[in-house]
Amino acid sequence: MNVNRFNKLTLAIGLSIATTSTLASPQAFMSSRSFAMAGTGVAVATPSAAPSTNPAMMASQQHDWADDFGLMVPSVNIRAADEEDTVDQIDGIQDVIDQFQELNRASNPQDARDLAKDLRERMIKFDKDTVRVDAGLGLAFAIPTDSISVGFMTNANLRATVRGELDEDDNAYLENLENATTAELLVADLDRDLKSRGRILASAVVEAGVSVAKTFQLNNGESFQLGVTPKYVELRTFQYTETVSGFEDDEFDGDDSQTEKSGFNLDVGAAYAFGENQQWNAGVVVKNLIPMELDSAQSRPAQEDKYTLELKPMLTAGIAHKGSFHVVTAELDLTKKEAFGYEDDTQWLAVGAEFDVWRYAQLRAGLRHNLASNSDNDGIEETTQLTAGFGLNVLGAHLDLGALFSSADVGAAIEFGAAF
């Protein structure tokens, strides 16, 4: 068998989710600027990012060269986490299986025993190892005005994990092959007899909404903004389990592995500018005021317990100091986001900064730490992430790039847009 079965499985499922879920995920969408500033934005979002981040920021004070119109077409980001080089392990396992199947075991019984031992050791190491991919896509525009600011957003993200699961019967079976007779080796068929599995678990959310925001002046000369984003939300889950050697392209049926649910929801945000020159800005947003949940399909052939994707209200607060050439901000999730599948719960504490070079270029950096991270999770741990990026502006058109790095994740983001 010369085709890498796990890679076929991953590719087929990835293509299925991409086409049916439009690259969606329960992870909150972030613009490339936000991506480079550790996911912050509640108190510093630009007009085009505000409908997805904090709708009140559409009406908040912006630089005079970016307060009439904002456009995002599009913003794309991707992250990958592979703590134990899972993909390389998959390739190695498939190579050993192929070598065993193609070996002349009558003439080389000891080589067959050695391959069985090698395979057992690889599969023990591979058990519960996980590879995860996140991808996001967003489109938006905003028109800030002195009366009512309006905007539109649609965004989506995908989170998919591939995980190895060792069957204890396989462990015993391969251990017996390490000392098997030539006759026993001749009848062994790893494609038929192995029961260890590859599991794919993915979750998805697609959003589309219209944002409205307004500034209210206070008697002391300061101001605050209120904004709302009523939106349509679609949830999807995907769970597919197949034996290491049993997957075939023509047997794959994505419909049996997916569930979906849709409905309307609401984000509400506020921002408050203060200080002698209104250089300080505080922001708060509650996203997904209406709780939603969706059970996954049962895995096949294992028929194990279902997973539940929950979309609960999330409260985030931030504060920022802004000047002609800088933005420095800190942000905290006041509620914990529960994990779906093989990952940590998340509750981020983040700081980010942007330094402007005469309006033509921006340098960005950030750091965020997961207060809900734990070492006993059942997959890839979310701990501390470092981010960086830069932006270029020419005649109102902008290009933003971002990068992310942690002990588990690497990621990148790119965005095209306009602001004037």
Question: Could you walk me through the main structural features you see in this protein, from its secondary elements to its overall organization?
Answer:
The chain has helices spanning 5-21, 32-36, 50-53, 86-102, 109-126, 168-177, 182-187, 190-193, and strands spanning 70-82, 130-143, 148-165, 197-217, 223-243, 258-274, 280-287, 292-295, 308-311, 314-322, 326-333, 348-357, 361-370, 384-394, 397-406, 409-419. The chain has 420 residues and is of the alpha+beta class. The chain has one domain: Beta Barrel (Porin). The strands form two sheets. Strands 1-2-3-4-5-6-7-10-11-12-13-14-15-16 form a 14-stranded antiparallel barrel. 45% of the residues are buried. Residues 1-25 and 247-252 have low confidence and may be disordered.
Defining key terms:
19% helix, alpha+beta, 14-stranded antiparallel β-barrel, 420 residues, Porin, two-stranded antiparallel sheet
What's the domain count? 1
Based on CA inertia axes, which overall geometry fits? elongated
SS strand fraction: over 45%
Using DSSP, what is the number of strands?
Answer: 16
Taking pLDDT < 50 over at least 5 consecutive residues as the criterion, the unreliable ranges are 1-25, 247-252
Major sheet: 14 strands, antiparallel, barrel
The CATH architecture term is Beta Barrel
The whole-angstrom Rg is 25 Å
Which homologous superfamily in CATH is the superfamily? Outer membrane protein transport protein (OMPP1/FadL/TodX)
